[in-house]
Amino acid sequence: MTETLLNSRILIIDDEIRNVELLEDVLTAEGFTNLISSTEPDRAMALIDTVAPDLLLLDLRMPGTDGYTILSRLQPRQRDGEYLPVVVLTADAARDARHRALALGAHDFLTKPFDITEVILRVWNLLETRALYKRLRELTGQLPKAEQRPWTSD
């Protein structure tokens, strides 16, 4: 499973190139090979559609289209049974910011400046969870459909 996870498509969206480069360096050193990044938040939705990421690392505070807007646009696009983990990147540790992001569908947070060990562990954990969701969906799809019969008592 580890090799499969290392090939996961990880999309990084942050308007600060320093943050993008740091995350790319950390994830590359960990062995991840399929990293896509952008410092242009206005391109986020097009990239998400094109890349179909397994994990999204998303800055909250960006000019133009901010992370909250991107999160709100992601929710209606998700089909039943799909799981796209989103890790919010933020220097804002305020409770309101966290609550708002979670309400919009964020799964986890990384606070700037980044704790490298925390970055790696959160990425691994969420990619593993996504892999388990995908496996469950595959297995569920293999189950025979139950016949719909009205319940009667004999």
Automatic annotation (TrEMBL):
Where in this protein does the record say 4-aspartylphosphate is found? 59
Query: What are the Response regulatory domain coordinates in residue numbering?
Result: 9-127
Tell me the keywords, alphabetical order. Answer: Phosphoprotein
What biological process terms from GO does the record include?
Answer: phosphorelay signal transduction system
Which domain of life does the protein's organism represent? Answer: Bacteria
Annotated PANTHER family: RESPONSE REGULATORY DOMAIN-CONTAINING PROTEIN (PTHR44591:SF3), STRESS RESPONSE REGULATOR PROTEIN 1 (PTHR44591)
| Record's protein name | Response regulator receiver domain-containing protein
Please report the organism this UniProt entry assigns to the protein.
Paraperlucidibaca baekdonensis
